[in-house]
Design a protein that fits this description.
heterodimer; A: about 250 residues; three-stranded antiparallel beta sheet; B: about 150 residues; mainly alpha; 6 helices; cell membrane (chain B); transmembrane (chain B); ThrE_Dicarb/AminoAcid_Exp (chain B); cell inner membrane (chain B); membrane (chain B)
């Protein structure tokens, strides 16, 4: 197989890994091990926003792939499948066409359907509101607010604004709808509802992954992730804060 | 027990959002339940939020590494939904909310606590992963000596 084709396979799998939110060391390790199983030494440098893979080609020239990864979501199943794929490559040779086909299949792997994920988001809010010692009524309110947030966030995402705008709007919805709910039935605790319903937005997992990257020695990506988490938290917090400030003056 | 079920539900649905395979969802949910129970029990006895989170994360690490070996799936499939109840999302939100309301000293307090909790989770998981890898390496070495 040509070196170029191997590089294509490696960069395609690295791209899928990175856009599914895999850790940096995993992306580097997978790209290297794929190249290695075809008998090629490569160097790669991965950041959360993109990566480069480089190696020496057939005629002693340098081959380099640079790829920018724009939308990053959390998709553990894809990471799992790519992992299994690179394990498989270690033991058996897979031809270029077959490998690309497998990777394309993984890339198109079905998500859970939107209603399912909406309801899941609702239940997350429900359970966390209860865990934060909210009452049953609070939890039910959080359930519906969270479903609404998830739906709206998904819609904005498909229109394709920049990422932080989604979080800002979602935060405003969380704050606004909780205030309305509080207005209708004053027994509800606003704080508990808001915390529960923004649980799907807040960047807890990114913060933890950022620190994990730092512990593995990937300092640049660690700070990028922490920065992303900080900006998301700011977007959500400012969104909620604006609505709460409105309520103080105008309600 | 009620809290176990709630944390189970949270992690289970977190698993759906993170799109893990259907047959692994239940195990990921149990991971979240266990981690929250460990966290809540330690918090009740010691009252230290960072320490309790660390214990919770160690439980997540142990559970997910064990299940990864039993079910032949990478450990992160269980550990990421498992830490979902522990992650300091609310802390990050409160930090920013305090800043918006211009009470800066509260914001610093909450921010440092958030960073410490996130660090505790990362260290807790890494601690157990390293232990497991250490164990595997010792096993290999013993196997080679025979």
């Amino acid at each position: 197989m040509q070196t170029k084709q191997v590089m294509e396979i490696a960069s395609l799998s690295a791209e899928i890994l990175l856009s599914s939110g895999a850790e940096i060391y995993r992306v580097e390790y997978t790209a290297k091990s794929i190249c290695k199983s075809y008998g090629i030494e490569c160097e790669c440098f991965v950041m959360p926003t993109g990566f480069t893979i480089s190696c020496t080609g057939d005629k002693n020239e340098t081959l380099t792939y640079v790829k920018r990864v724009e939308n990053r979501t959390m998709d553990l199943h894809k990471i799992d499948s790519i992992n299994a794929f690179s394990r498989r490559l270690e033991n058996e040779k897979i031809g270029y066409e077959d490998a690309v086909k497998i990777l394309k299949d993984i890339e198109k792997m079905p998500y859970f359907k939107l209603p399912t994920r909406c309801i899941a988001a609702g239940f997350i809010a429900f359970s966390f509101t209860m865990l934060f010692r909210g009452t049953l009524k609070d939890s039910i309110a959080a359930f519906f607010i969270s479903m609404l947030i998830f739906k709206v966030k998904n819609d904005i995402e498909s229109i394709g604004f920049f990422q932080f705008f989604e979080y800002f709007i979602s935060g405003m919805i969380a704050g606004g709808v909780s205030l309305i709910a509080h207005k209708i039935s004053p027994a509800l605790n606003i704080d508990k509802i808001i915390i529960g319903s923004i649980m799907i937005l807040v960047p807890g997992v990114s913060i933890t992954n950022g620190i994990k990257d730092a512990l593995y020695g990937d300092l640049i990506s660690s700070f990028t992730r922490l920065g992303e988490a900080l900006f998301i938290a700011i977007a959500v917090g400012v969104g909620v804060g604006i609505m709460l400030t409105f309520s103080v003056y105008w309600m | 027990m009620k809290e176990f079920l709630l944390a189970f539900l949270g992690s289970f649905c977190g698993g759906i959002i993170f799109n893990i395979q259907r047959k692994n969802l239940i195990w990921a949910g149990i991971c979240g339940g266990l981690s929250w129970t460990a966290y809540a029990l330690t918090y009740e006895y010691t009252g230290g939020i960072v320490f309790s989170t660390f214990i919770g994360a160690v439980v997540v690490g142990l559970y997910s590494e064990t299940m990864a070996r039993i079910l032949k799936t990478p450990a992160f499939v269980f550990s990421i939904p498992g830490i979902f109840p522990l992650v300091p999302g609310a802390g990050a939100y409160f930090t920013v909310l305090y800043i918006v309301n211009s009470s800066y000293s509260d914001a610093v307090n909450k921010g440092v606590e958030t960073a410490a909790v996130a660090g505790a989770i990362a260290f807790g998981i890494l601690f157990t992963t390293t232990l497991f890898q250490f164990g595997v390496r010792i096993k290999e070495r013993i196997g080679r000596n025979d």
